[in-house]
Amino acid sequence: MKKALRTFVSVIAIVLIVSTVSGCGLVVLNEEKDAQSVVAIINGENILKSEFNDYVTFNTIVYELYDYQITEDIEEAFVSALYQDFVNTYLFKLELEKAGVEITQEEIAESENEFYEMLASYAPDETSLNALYEEYGLDEASFKELVSKEIEFAYYATKYDSSDMDKSFVTEAVAMEVDGVDIPNYIFYYYAVMIQLQNYMYEGTYASTEEEYLELYDEVAVYIQNAQAVIDYCESNGITVTEDEITSARLNLQTVEYYAGSDTMQQMYDGYYLTDAQIEEGETYMATASAYQTKLENQVVSEIAPTEKQLQNYMQDNIDDYDESTVSAYHILVEDETAAKALEDEAGGTAEGFMAVYTKYQDNTTIKEMADLGSFKRKEMVDEFSQAAFSMEIGQVRGCVQTEYGYHLIYVYDKNIVEVPAYEQIADTVRQDYIDSVKDEEINKFFEKITNVKVRNKNYSQMPGTLLTETLAEIYNVKTKLRVALR
Fold first, then answer.
1. Please, what are the domains in the chain?
2. What pLDDT does residue 361 have?
3. pLDDT digits (tens, 9 = 90+) for 443-478
4. Predicted confidence (pLDDT) at residue 24 exceeds the cutoff of 50
5. What's the CA gap between 324 and 198, in Å, rounded?
6. What's the pLDDT tens digit per position in 43-56?
7. CB 400 within 8 A of CB 344
């Protein structure tokens, strides 16, 4: 997932996502007086409009370097997004200062070099540079002073993000309450990582926007609700799992992690501010719930007890599954009945005629498929095809056999018809087949009963970065004045 913290360059990319905008300046009346207005109070300190104006000017310049344009209809959204970034960066700066973490001149210089390399491709000569300075009411000296100041300020976000500072106020907050049990965010976030990876592995989907993440979190909440219900049920009913069973479930999770790769996993965990200890605890929780669920599923299946009458009826209803008879055949498949009839007439009802047609039309684009199907059982083909093929004699050709795929010309070249065994001969097989056919339904009915639990205090509908900055805003008693910033 995209992190909420970033360098000056990636600030721009994030703002684009948040506000769907792109870049130019801000016009105010009585600029000198307005610059002394207070746009925010953070930790008791008044933050002046002049500081925010510089932040907007710098980021607007960066937008221009990326060849974006801010039109009047999106200017307010653009400045609003920058304002939130501006306040957040102040909070990160305060956190770093409280922890005694400093930004080095080497770090600032690296970002400055990156900026000036980008500037050189946009304004490669003195004329274009002077035009840029003039556009923003700057000269070379004031421009460089602005760049140095704002790059240092923006770097606080990157520094805070990459630091090992304690962010447990995000991960240890309660995400949801399931039947009186508080589920902390670190459990919730671990599930979010794993479910997103599983969705990608099996469905090819991956959350990328805030809206998609919030939909993912609703999905995660259901998983956790069910997991906690399973844990509670087993513990209340004296059902236990061994360490080996938990380890087996843990290995399945680690297979997903291996698939994603260690770098990707670490980036995803970092995006949720998860520590190694919290990752391990999340994995243990998920593996334990999975082991309990497997135990309950096995218990449900073991209690399925069909009568002999049910089994006999099941065998009769699925008699083709126990028929070992086979037919070997060629077929030619076309879309159109008229074309099928023409092929049938050309084949002339003989094996030789069919094979002549089969050879003749190998490269004809009107043929959907032609193949030697080899030996197959009744249940392995769609009903209409099987009924036709098994009713034919060896050497017989039949055309215009319609299925959901089109019209078939069929040539049967071998048959092996055997008698279906009596129920008594295959009773154990029928019993297992019956259980396999109903077990999913029985398992679902069982879990629907035990997972009908009360879920309260759903506090998970926030991106981790949003929760982090909102919590910091409370800690530092932030009072925002967006209307002043926008005027």
1. 8-166+478-486 (no CATH), 174-303+448-458 (no CATH), 324-416 (3.10.50.40)
2. 95
3. 999 999 999 888 888 889 889 999 999 999 999 999
4. no
5. 38
6. 999 999 999 999 99
7. yes
Residue type at 27 in one-letter notation? V
Query: Which of these, 133, 110, 84, 118, lies nearest to 7 by C-alpha position?
Result: 110
Q: Are the beta carbons of 103 and 152 closer than 8 angstroms?
A: yes
Which of 140, 3, 1 shows the shortest CA–CA distance to 468? Answer: 3
Cα–Cα–Cα angle for 192, 196, 252, rounded to 5 degrees: 90
Residues 149 and 138: beta-carbon distance below 8 Å = no
pTM of the complete model beyond 0.85: no
pLDDT digits (tens, 9 = 90+) for 392-438: 999 999 999 999 999 999 999 999 999 999 999 999 999 999 999 99
Q: State the helix-helix crossing angle for 140-162 and 126-135, rounded to 10 degrees.
A: 80
Half-sphere exposure of 208 (CA within 13 A, CB side): 5
Of 128 and 257, the one with more pLDDT: 128
Helix, strand, coil % in the chain, rounded to nearest 5: 65, 10, 25
User: Any idea what DSSP says for residue 163?
Assistant: S
Q: How far is residue 409's CA from residue 342's CA, in Å, rounded to a whole number?
A: 10
* Residue 169 near residue 175, CB atoms below 8 Å: no
CA dihedral angle for residue 171, residue 176, residue 180, residue 181, rounded to 10 degrees: -40
pLDDT (tens digit per residue) in 304-329: 999 999 999 999 999 999 999 999 99
